[in-house]
Amino acid sequence: MGLDPNSRARFNLKDASVLLLDETQLGMTILVQIVTGLGAKNLHRCGDIESARSAVENNQIDLAIVDSLAATGQGYDFVEWLRRDAGEPNCYTPVLMTTSHTPRSQISRARDCGANIIIKKPFPPITVLERIIWSSKEGRKFLFSDTYVGPDRRFRNVGPPKGEKGRRREDFTATPLPQGQATADEDASADIEGGPELSGD
After folding, report:
1. What is the pLDDT confidence band of residue 195, given thresholds at 50, 70 and 90?
2. Terminus of the chain with fewer CB atoms < 10 Å: N or C?
3. What CA–CA distances, in Å, run from 170 to 105, 157, 166?
4. φ, ψ for residue 38 (rounded to 5)?
5. Separation CA 27–CA 24 (nearest Å)
């Protein structure tokens, strides 16, 4: 997913409304420096969940960079609220989650709360830019179900498990859904081995 260092392409976030959620002053300073370096001018700096919710309720947000708030895990809860309760268009906002710890349980939690991608701290600005571009171009459908709302958690189609036959189109019937929406399979789990959300450094 790396960008070609010789590329002449230019990226600018000057027209984007960006929400930053990090409870530490150092973390917020780093995020502000990165996104302003990418041209962002309209920033919503939030040091807690309450101010982040208020920013979402009163503004259209084009990009959210959300710390997991490791001590409490409230960052994950915020993303789940954003997906389920914030309403359109903010429920579709691309979300990059940041965290200092990336054990499999935390990667799974970020995936299951509806984040697009997770980035491990510390990270250079180029990593954030790569993930922003990837999130804006990814083709995963947005799913709505009783247990999950967010981008499809499956990154790759690896086929059925060994010894199992694949599903045939005639094995199930589909219910028409609004444009751009799909329902999540209950047993759909992300193939996160080597997925882009693991490569945050």
Report:
1. very low
2. N
3. 36, 19, 12
4. -95, 5
5. 5
Of 55, 184, 195, which is closest to residue 116 (Cα–Cα)?
Answer: 195
| 60-74: average pLDDT | 91
Whole-number pLDDT of residue 157: 52
Distance spanning both ends of the chain, measured CA to CA? 12
pTM above 0.85, yes or no: no
pLDDT of residue 43: 97
Query: 30 near 128, Cβ under 8 Å?
Result: no
- The C-alpha atoms of residue 7 and residue 131 are separated, in whole angstroms, by 17
Domain ranges of the chain: 17-138, 140-191
Q: Looking at the domain covering 17-138, what would its CATH class be?
A: alpha beta
Q: Dihedral of the CA atoms 183, 180, 52, 41 (nearest 10)?
A: 160
Residue type, 16: A
Residues linked to residue 117 through DSSP beta bridges, in sequence order? 96
Number of H helices, E strands in the chain: 5, 8
